[in-house]
Design brief:
It is a single chain. By secondary structure, the protein is an alpha/beta fold. Helices cover 37% and strands 17% of the residues. It has six helices and seven strands, in the order αβαβαβαβββαβα. The protein has helices at residues 2-34, 80-89, 105-116, 137-142, 177-182, 193-209; strands at 40-45, 94-99, 120-125, 146-149, 159-163, 167-171, 185-190. The longest helix has 33 residues, at 2-34. The protein is elongated, with a radius of gyration of 26 Å. The chain starts with a helix and ends in a 16-residue tail after the last helix.
Length: 225
Amino acid sequence: MRRLSWRVVASVVTGLALTLEALPWLLSRLQVRRQRRPRRDVLFFPSQVTCTEALLQPPGAAPAGPSVDCLCSLPHSESSLSRLLRALLAARVSLELCLFAFSNPQLGRAVRLLHQRGVRVRVVTDCDYMALNGSQIGLLRKAGIQVRHDQDLGYMHHKFAIVDKKVLITGSLNWTTQAIQNNRENVLIMEDAEYVRLFLEEFERIWEEFNPTKYSFFPKKKQGY
């Protein structure tokens, strides 16, 4: 009986030692599983027309959410536009925008709201399309946001945004109400350091190229699309 009890004790001690030896490995595996996966979202348009007022609250306003009463008749549900707005409004430090056409009022409000919150916003756009009726570019400049544009014969046709130098938003979508509500478009939202780096390098290159101190002429008309 005494010999049996010693065997039991020895088995328990051995099992405990093996468990302690494997504990660091188990903890590391659990930590890897708990790590947040990089964001990968795809949005397709046209988007359902929904109310976005709860997302576009100015600094100092009462917190808004799905439960906030709104008198408008629009559906209060998620849509591709609201998901795009959420991705933009997640910015805390910086937002780089490189856009061919920008006339959607909700997206314009979101960008100005980020500026009011202290986010550094920089915008690159096309010189012809920024002057069209409904363009948000004038409102951005009036709000104090830095905007630069091209001065050559080709269109500045990029359509991408970089949030906090961590999240890339890109696709076929022009930031216009026409495109959002009527066109078949796509937007990819991704957290990928390598892709963000490449797009950020392209933005910085264009930003410097479009420095107003380097402007020499303004084209009268462009050809093509």
